[in-house]
Amino acid sequence: MPTVRPSMSPLRSLLFLFFILCFTAYGEEEQFTEELLLRPLPDRKVLSHFHFQTTLPSTESYGHHHHLFPKAIYQLVHKFRVREMELSFMQGRWNYKRWGGYDPISSRNAKPPGVELWAVFDVPQDQVDASWKNLTHTLSGLFCASVNFLESSTTYSAPDWGFRPFSGNLRYGTLPREAVCTENLTPWLKLLPCRDKAGISALMDRPSIYRGFYHSQRLHLTSSEFDTVGLNSGMVLEQTLTVVLQPNTLGSGVAYTGGSILQPSWSMSSLFGRKVGGKCVLAKSSNVYVHLEGNLVSEVKNKWIENESQVFELSIPPNRVIKEVNGLHADPSILYDYSIENYSNSKPFDLGFRWKSSLVWSCPQAPLLASRFLMGSGNERGAVAISLESTGQSNVFRSADITEEICRLRVNIFQVVPWYVKVYYHTAQVFVDEQPQSLADVIEKMRVSPSEDKVSPGVMEILLRLPCDVNLATLTLEFDKGFLHIDEYPPDANQGFDIPSAVVSFPDFQASMHFLEDHSLNKSPVISKLQERSTILSYTEVLLVPLTTPDFSMPYNVITITCTVFALYFGSLLNALRRRAGEEERLLKSRAAKKTGRLSLVLPKLLAKLRGRPWEPPPQSAASSSSIISPKLVMKILLVASIAAGWQYYFG
Amino acid sequence: MEGTKKKKTRFWRWAIASVIFRLILIYFPKNLNLSSRPEVSTPLTSLRRLAEGYWLKQSSMSPYAGSMYHGSPLLLSILGPLTVKRIEGQPNQLLCSLFFVIADFITALVIRATGQNLQKAYTQSFKSLELAKLLENPEILSSGDIAALVYLWNPFTIVTCVGSSTSPIENLFIILTLYGACTRRVPLAAFGWVIASHLSLYPLILVIPVILLLGYGPDAPPRKLFLQRNFSKSGDNFSTTTTKQKEQRGQSAEPTLFLWRPVAFFFFWASLWACNVLVLCGFYVKEYGGLWEMFKSTYGFILTVGDLSPNIGVLWYFFAEVFDFFRNFFLIVFHINILFMILPLAIRLSHRPYFLAFVYIAISSMLKSYPSVGDSALYLALLGLFINELADMQFSFFLFCGYVGVSLLSPVMHNLWIWRGTGNANFYFATAMAYACFQIVLVVESVSAMLKHDRMIRKLSNTTARDGSTILQEPVQ
């Protein structure tokens, strides 16, 4: 069960993190652990969370040679001096309402769609961007994804405090439209010592994994290789795959008990279509956990106090049962721990979970449910609104900020907007329960770096202070839609452009679970991750903004027509300026006196022919026709002919 | 006398009526929503962007951070506070709109004063050419009143004023420059020129008409005629009236002599004002990018056509479509096109500097990178100043219909393309093209009509001179 505590001082949390880091590298040798956490979800689905962790002691003490830690990652860390990095591929959308938003797994593993990459570098300030660019290219090659599109300065940003509390040389970028598939999973699996040939990772049957409702594949890297002070504890590579799967109920059909629908029973083989044939021999520990949330446990207790086996049944008895230690809440969550060291190919591990009676429960929710939407119509302008809706867990707020006389709830919003959505930050408005508020009352801290055309995206970091009894708070910002050059549109321009997810976090709330363990030295990484304090964090939807398109087939027409208009202007104005009307009149008169036009000659001729009479040319016309073959003309023709002949002779 | 008085009251009545009309329109900004029309507000003149710049400044960022604001820091410091101030129950931008109404009204008054000045000078020069009978024509209208009313009642001006774009202020400074040059108020002319160029770059080319105005005085018939006249007179009777003529010249009734003093003063004052403006701007943007950033995001933005949002000009679609490889080439070509015509026009129209200024303004508002109807409103009003000279201009009805047609069609096409999605960018671009063509025809026709008018005067002057000389010479014979 998650606990709520007032925000810890940064120093303490750092120390805590440091402690864990030291702890994992205690053995001074490489370690690999594989774990799987399964959790039934209220809406008949099952969350499976694979967690693989490889640790490497510091290079100083251990040297460059290693046999478990992936060489590619090691080199990458050393080349670009990465302090911390996270790359995630996600497909689907984490349903915060049903699957919860107030536990370490959701706030760490619920990710924005597509690719998200952030990295902290241990280089001087002016080299961070260069390192970032190189890193994106390397990762793009490593994971067969278009991570290299994050290289352009229009796609990444440098958040100050909105994304993580202490972000020094942090760069953050997302690609919302990146499609995630097996081609990204395979290179990710290659980083594991056993790949997907043995151990828990053998469960990753591609069709069943990608069939899920949510799929997030994550790679988190922490390195203290470049720490000048303190203990050098090496690197930790954490690879997680979080999948939400629907148990296959087609065979058994929907079961009812007592009028309500029974939750579907599942087993590992029905979820993944595979069984675990023993552990990966290189792994130090290899465990499977079944996690029951506190709300579920309390429901179970409310209904059947005497025996929980009347509600559900595990096909294999767990090695041990770990209960959460928690002073605040009555019903702690329960972890059933299975070690699969004793299983082999001949005796595969296939855990089954069978519901016996129907149960309704809900997952713990974040204080406010964030969602984001667009307002307005047309392709000229619009507004983006972030709405924070209360989840009704009022007891959460009580403990939030008791020291102040007025209870305040702090919400941190971090939003990156691409440059072609030109946000007017002065139009920011905050509505609390549909009442407009003055910004000074509501906004505690705000940092904006406005977008620059074709250079950088707009970044907004806002710390809101909302009253605790808020039902609905809305932040709106107006924007103009930009117009791009035809080369800047993607192939399917009419589909629209994506605004990456905004990150909404609640700095006063931290999710962590406390498990009492008998032998803490043997602590597993998953449990330590669950125990680690993490800020409640949620991502909003990706927005699709349609932009106006020019006619893509027109460049030549536009160039020619525009140039024609310019020529018209230039020519006619110059003509008007240099025209001398008096002389022109004189010239016309003299020409009229000299000869009548050719047309006036042809017309009588035609008329005469029509009438059938012989035509008599006027007397001057003979002279004018004879003047056509003048000696001057003959000379000209001869000159041109001789030049042509000469040209032909010398150069032909 | 009574007639003129009547005319005067009528002018004032109409002028005040136009102000009241504006004030009424200001109260419906939400319904009209003019401030977001691409015809009215360009990236350079949009008040919304100015408010964003002011907000950035207030939150201790450079107003030019991001590509929102591209105007002058001075405008920001004057209008910025007005954008934030709200009066309960009144429209948001009320104070700014009132500011623009006042600017428009002052502009109209200055145009009127300029017109009266021009007409006086013109009458004087006609008298000295002994062509006074031309002026006895009852159709001669007081061009100042007409131009001022054209400016006040032009739908383009009203729309610009109500739609809160900053172009009324730019127009005011351009008009002030020309007024100062006409009346030889050198500091005023220099001030107007410096501020106008600072606000929108293009008025820089007005330096030529201003120099000519200061040097030769306001518009007059071709200089040759005066020389001829003087020659024939002085050849006639050398000895008697030379002193008198010299006095006349001293009064600059005859624009044959170029006065260097006011021009030198003009440059002195211009450099003084420019220094002032730069120092003030420097103070304003000192903590951020400095003056270089300011120039980059104002003049640089104008010259590189960075914003491709649609407007009534021809450049946006061209640069949205043209291949990147040629972009710089075409940028140079299009900007040079404005400069190319400066010299030929200055040579041909040097005796009519105010008309020359009109032509320059028309050309730059046609070829500038972010044109709006506010620029057109200015040159259309100036056209009213030459109503007597351009009386026999060709195609005037055609042009009128064209302007009306384009200004009705352009919003329709914009709506079809942007809001409904049924139209296409090409439709809107076609109206922009048509608008450019109409402006070209207007400029070319007005220039040729003016040249024709000069020719007419020359002819008349020659005939009167001949008649006069024959009459004069008769007793000698």
Brief sketch in words of this structure:
The complex is a heterodimer of chains A (652) and B (477). With 652 residues, chain A is an alpha+beta fold. The two termini of chain B are 45 Å apart.
In terms of topology, how is this protein built?
The complex is a heterodimer of chains A (652) and B (477).
Chain A: H1 10-24, E1 31-40, E2 46-56, H2 59-62, H3 71-80, E3 82-92, H4 96-99, H5 104-109, E4 114-121, H6 128-143, E5 156-157, E6 170-175, H7 182-190, H8 206-210, E7 214-223, E8 235-245, E9 256-257, E10 260-261, E11 266-267, H9 268-272, E12 285-292, H10 294-303, E13 312-314, E14 320-323, E15 334-339, E16 352-355, E17 368-375, E18 381-390, H11 394-398, E19 408-417, E20 421-432, E21 435-437, H12 439-442, E22 443-449, E23 458-467, E24 472-481, E25 497-499, E26 503-511, H13 525-531, E27 534-539, E28 543-545, H14 555-578, H15 581-594, H16 598-611, H17 619-626, H18 631-651
Parallel strand pairs in A: 1-12
Antiparallel strand pairs in A: 1-2, 2-8, 3-4, 3-7, 4-6, 5-6, 7-8, 9-10, 11-16, 12-15, 13-16, 14-15, 17-18, 18-24, 19-23, 19-26, 20-21, 20-24, 22-23, 25-28, 26-27
Chain B: H1 2-26, H2 29-32, H3 47-58, H4 73-84, H5 94-128, H6 132-135, H7 143-153, H8 155-162, H9 167-182, H10 186-200, H11 207-216, H12 223-236, H13 242-250, H14 260-284, H15 290-304, H16 315-321, H17 327-340, H18 342-348, H19 353-367, H20 373-385, H21 396-420, H22 425-476
